[in-house]
Amino acid sequence: MLKQIIITGLLIFTPLFAIEEANIKSEMDSKIQTITSILQDNTISSAQKQESISPTVDTIFDYKTMSKISLGKKWKTLTTSQQDNFSQKFEAKLKNSYFEKLELYTNEKVLVKEQTKVKSTRIHLHTDIIGLEETYEIIYKFYKVKNSSDWLIYDIDITGVSIIQTYRKQFSEFLATKSFNELLESL
Amino acid sequence: MKLKILKNTVLLLFISLFMVACSSKESPALTSQNSTLNAAVSESEDDEFDSEFEEADKVVFDPLEDYNRWMTSVNDKFYIHVFDPVSKGYAVVVPKPARVGVSNAFHNLKFPIRFTNNLLQFKFDASMKELGRFMINSTIGVLGLFDVAKAGGVEPQEEDFGQTLGHYGVGTGFHVVLPFLGPSNLRDTIGFAVDSAIAPTTDASLKYQIPDNAEKALGLSTAYYINKNSLHPGEYESLKKDALDVYTFFRDSYEQQRAKEIEK
Q1: Chain A residues close to B234, C-beta within 8 Å
Q2: What pLDDT does B28 receive?
Q3: What InterPro entries does this protein's entry cite (chain A) (predicted)?
Q4: Run means of pLDDT, 10 residues per run, chain B, 264 residues
Q5: From CA B21, how far away is CA B246, in angstroms rounded?
Q6: Which domains does chain A have, with CATH numbers?
Q7: Parallel, antiparallel, or unpaired for β A19-20 and A122-130?
Q8: Would you say the pTM of this structure is higher than 0.90?
Q9: Is the dihedral of CA A173, A178, A180, A184 positive or negative?
Q10: Residue B42 belongs to some domain of the structure
Q11: Cβ of A2: how many Cβ atoms within 10 Å?
């Protein structure tokens, strides 16, 4: 019970804005610690876990940009309401998929390694998930928000596979033969 | 499998590989990132993302698509109805620590593949790490059952012959879905055949190889895959749910992952 109170406290005081460059590693480290301690708590249901984890990731995941990149050139041809509609559905899909992956979590250790600035507007944060027999590298990719000092996540690389690139490819192949509305329905 | 037949197959595949290698030259995001680095000032945010993800906009050369799709669904049915239930049953009988031990032992046995391919790429540091890991894990780690080297901070240095070919600029060739084994491409299929020939877990009549006939070799590799799958329950199903099109999803994920591994 005490643990839950502490976690809830942590969540409330997690700042509701993007991270500054110097704080990326430490912020992500504490966020990942928060998430793993929620996941390890056997006293709460998985629905409650999702509810507690959501605010931790929502502040740093830029779902809108993810939606935009994943649709590629198609994005600009859409009306604002179509864009919003798509973003909403895509965000829900990403979250669903993310929480489903978390269900597979079984006490693996997460190690936040180094943050590398690949260019002036991009930072990659390298992390390792250490499983019983294998280690998986996960890279969180941040971009610098225009005219600010804030950084947000626009993509995640899981063992060399970019989530957003994979969706972009899937969507463009889907749209080559089917309509945008059909895509919305399939999400 | 007779070594001679294997040799001929490898030779044949090689010839066909070089005929198609040119058609799918790999140009990963690296080059585009360099060019955007210079143009970053004048470029808008959208263009920057577009060039970073341009790999996804390319049309994939996929002459075997019809066969691949069919094989993907065959593999999928086999996985769901046979392979997964078997590994679940196995997981009930064999406790997890034992399965991790088996996994470690198999990994340790495949040392010649990693060692040789590190050497072939002139990665001497990595080869020495592999050699050290093999010596420590085979002795103190009780025939590889315990990965004591990893616990001591010496991580495995994964390399295979597909990566070695890629390292020297051999293109992927076309994508091919292998029976039971899943996504691969022409280059990696050749790599797999070559690696299998030197692995102690297969039978190519080399002195150190454990199985002395094809059936035993097949049995051993079946055991390997069942044990491996038992340690990753639900992963395949969970990944599959992310796909709009299961075949292209696994094809593209596979190719992305291999490109990254070769870059390392």
Answers
A1: 103-104
A2: 43
A3: MlaC/ttg2D (IPR008869), Tgt2/MlaC_sf (IPR042245)
A4: 50 46 42 45 75 86 96 97 96 96 96 97 97 96 94 93 97 95 97 94 86 90 94 91 93 95 92
A5: 26
A6: 2-186 (3.10.450.710)
A7: unpaired
A8: no
A9: negative
A10: no
A11: 6
Distance of CA B17 to the CA centre of its chain: 18
Residues 6-45 of A with CB under 8 A from B: none
Chain A closest CA to B45's CA: distance in Å? 8
Residue with tokens 């020939």: B197
Q: How confident is the model at residue A9 (pLDDT cuts 50, 70, 90)?
A: low
For residue B15, being part of any structural domain is answered with no
- B145-172 b/e with 16+ CB inside 10 Å = b? bbbbbbeeebebbbbbbbbbbbbeebbb
Full residue range of the structural domain in which residue B106 is found: 59-263
Q: Is A65 on the interface with B (CB under 8 A)?
A: yes
Nearest CA to B235 among B57, B87, B37?
Answer: B87
Determine the distance in angstroms separating the CA of A5 from the nearest CA of chain B, rounded to an integer: 31
Looking at the complex, report in whole angstroms how far the Cα of residue A106 sits from the nearest Cα belonging to chain B: 11
In a domain, B88, yes or no: yes
Q: What is the residue type of A108?
A: E
Residue in this structure with the two tokens 């005929």, named with its chain if needed: B19
**Domains of chain B: total:** 1
All residues of chain A having their beta carbon less than 8 Å from the beta carbon of residue B252 are: 166, 169-170
Q: Is B50 helix (H, G, I), strand (E, B) or coil?
A: helix
Report the residue of chain A nearest B254, measured CA to CA.
A161
pLDDT single digits (tens) A63-108: 999 999 999 989 999 999 999 999 999 999 998 888 888 888 877 8
Please indicate, yes or no, if residue B9 is contained in any of the structural domains: no
